[in-house]
Each structure stands twice: as C-alpha cells, then as structure tokens.
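Q: My collaborator sent me two sequences in one message, no labels, and asked for predicted structures for both. Can we handle them in order? The first one she listed is below.
A: Yes, handling them in the order given. First sequence, followed by its structure tokens:
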Amino acid sequence: HIIDSSSDNISIDFGKVLPQYLIKSKTQNAFLPFIELNNYQYNFKRELESPSSLDKLLYYPHQWFFEYILQFRNANVLTTNDIFTIKGNIIHRIIEHYYMSNPKPIDIKSWFLEQFNNELARQGAALLSYGSEPEKRSFEQLAFNGFQTLVRVLIENNWEVIHNEHPLKGQINEEQIGGIIDLVAKRGDDFLIIDIKFSGYTKRYNLLKNNEDLQLFWYKKLYNSSEIGTIYTAYFIVDAAKFITKYPNILKDANVITFK
C-alpha cells in the first residue's frame, strides 16, 4: 500500500492490473459535537406542561430537556414518519368536523369521501403525488372503516359526544398542565374521555395493560364537571377500528384490558 502523507487518502495496490481503491482516513482532529450549558441560563420550571411533555419528562428526560428547554427540534424534512402524521391529522380533522357540524348524513360514505378529498387537497399533498395512489386508496379505506366504526359504536352504546377537541387546563401538585381532549361523550351522569390515534394498537394496549396510560390519566384528572358521575377513559385506534379501555360494560365492542 502507498500512503500519501500530504493527503488523507490511502491507495491500495494489489500487485495486479486492478483499479485502485481509495479509503478515506478519519481526520485526526474530528470531534463529536459538544454543548456546554450554564445551569443558571435556563429556567427548568415551565409555565405549562402537557400530557405529552410530561410523558417525555418521566420516561425520556433528556428528550424533554432538548425539546422543551433548549427548543431543539428535528429538521422539517418530509419522511415516512411524516406520512403517518399527515394521515393522523386528516382523520382527526374529519372526525372534528363531523361532531362540530353534526350533519347526520343519510349517506355517510359520500359525506366522508367529500371531507376526505377536501383534507387531502388541503394537507395531504404527499399522498397525491405520482405513485402514491395505492397508499392513498388503502388509507381511504382504513380511515372510513375507522370513522364509521367510531360513530356507530358510540351511538349503539348511547354515548353522546358533547365536546370535540376540548381544551382543558388545571393545576396538579403545583404544576400547571394543559391539553386537548379529542372527544368527550356523556351517558346519563357518566363521561367518557376518548383519545384518538390513527395507529399503534399494540402500543396503547400495552400502556393500558401496564398502567402507563399517562395521557388518559392526566385528562381524567383535569376534566372537571359539576355533575356527579364516573369519568371513564378509552383509546380509539383508527386503522384497527377498535376501542381499548380498562373499563368493562362501557362499550360492548371494545377490547377491555383485564388485570389478574
């Protein structure tokens, strides 16, 4: 082999008539990024935490610090993960619009498709690009099946949606916490808090199974009502078209977590 001391390249000669392969050597003065912080420069007490930020604080404190204190964010570049975010935003918006306008259409499929196409045009450009038609069709079917199941199951179990994208704020142990509940339904004196997720059935099932459903816990703690009744919580997973809850007998089609 031949080493050129004037450059960072090493050429390898195998003694035959072969092309030479250049190997880039590691620069001697290469360092990993290093950030030096002044403890007195940052205020670790935030005015308002959310259920999602508290989740990071408890389980991934370094992520909480970088994201919420240092304000470091991932680059806004379209990736596969962003497609899931887009899908979640679209289905959330359709559900929000349905319960906001309460249209009760005769042909729910036609109503859904109109809203779906409007939302695609507004925020789903990635799903309208060339070659994305199969994914768009698959998403359309999953979204409609989930939407239709959500509406049907709540009606069949006599739950009436009374709040949609409901903001709430309160104090727990001297900590100000705020958030937005996707849906709040009422039946008699009882309430049902529903957190809607486009996907992630297994993840939410395990959160409930292990009593780690912190987001639902905070929502239940913060939701205040002057009426006497029980507050229940549940996840609804759109692509699985299923409710998951800890509470039996509130939704007959839900998957209920059992504890031994």
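Q: And the one she listed second?
A: Here it is, processed independently of the first:
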Amino acid sequence: LSAIKLVLAIMQKPEIKAALIDLDDTLTYTNDLIIAAFSEIAAELSRTGRVEFDDIYREVTRLNYEKYQKFHVNRFRSWPPFLDSLQSVFRLSSNEVAFARDQIGTIYTTVPKVMDGAFELLDFYGRQGIIRCPITHADAEWTDFKLKATGLWSYIDPAFIVIADVNRAKGIQDYRFAMDRVGQNPENILSMGDSIPGDILPAVELGFGEIIHVDNGRSWGRYREGEVPTSVHRVTSLREVPEIIAESREVAILNR
C-alpha cells in the first residue's frame, strides 16, 4: 500500500516551467576571487615579518564578516570601512592600504571560473522550454560583467534577471519577487543555489517544485550554515541536475 501511495504521489508531480538560478558559487566560482584577494593582502602585509600570514588572513576574514553584517554585499559601503579597520589594526602605511584596495578591486575585474557543466545545464533548460532566471545577490554592474565576460549571458533569459537588494541579506522576499517575475506557480518552479539561508530555505518555505542545493565545497562558510531539509536535492556537480529535471518532466508528461 505504501508503495502504491508513493507512485501516486510521484505521478502527481507538476511540470517544471521556470528555473530560479543563483549565480555566485552556483554557476561561477566567485568566492575564489575573494579568497585570492585576501590571500594576496595577507601575503603582502606579512612580508615585513611583523605579523604572520595566518594571523593577517584570519583578521581580514573576520573584518569582512563584520562589515557584511552591517553593509551586506554593497561593495561601495562595505569596503571603505573594511580598509579603515584593516589600517587601524595593523597600522598600515598608505602604500599598504593602496595595495589592499587594489586587491579588493580585482574581485570585480577578474573573470570568475564557470563551474563544470554550467553551460550544458543552462542549454538543457533552454531546450526543455524552462525559463532561465538568474537571481543574484550582487549589484547590477558586477552581475552584467560576470554574465557577459564568462559567456553565460547567452545561456540565460536576460529579461528575467533578478538582482537581490545588496543592502540586506538575500532571502524569501527576493525569491517571491522572482516567482512573480517568471509568472509561475511555486510547484512549477525549480530553484538552485549554494546558500542554505539565502537560497535553499526561502525556496522550501515558498514550496517550489524542485529545490537543488549546489554543495560545491567552495562557497563562503557562512552560506553553508544551517540544516538542509531532506526534500532538497543535494548535488556536488551541476552535471547531476539534468537527470533530476528529466525525471520530474517525465512524470509530469505521464500525468497529463
């Protein structure tokens, strides 16, 4: 009897018509750019020998989180006080501050590496008639740069791009807005992202049809905090996703 109920439940699964896709550390390795910049800062400041690399790097990451809590991902508001605090803690010279500022700048001018399988996955969505809606927690200028410089722009539906407010944490309000943007019911939406609090839990609360946690192991640690519900698909590679979608659409077709 339980097996029959399971089959009936699966056959009632609705068709996926839109995909809400996080960008940073879901399609691109964006956190790697931040790690690289912080590492360069720590390496440069440790050359004098007055402070060890690990101590500097630890403080840099602490200050980054401190400013994130106040300014979130607004780079124009967060980095100036970050540099001021860094200068105060380590008594940096003007040249050292300038070096640190330049390294922070590289985060926004370096083309991030695209995750393996990203192009193929987005192409798969397109061929299946699924709306491809990026929902990203970064300002419009940087988002435009990343999408175009990586070539991902040609694999999304630009009219549906959603920019989450950089002055607050990404959350359910952004996913609700994206749901309205694509004009689909929750059960017809697939959502995928790396942040448990910012991507996964809002999608669960809204009742999206399929939710995929992209656990690549390289996302910011703060985004990996929290418990992922068992109903969420966990993948370590984007190449695992098409099978999940194919199964969902096959069931929906059988249910027509």
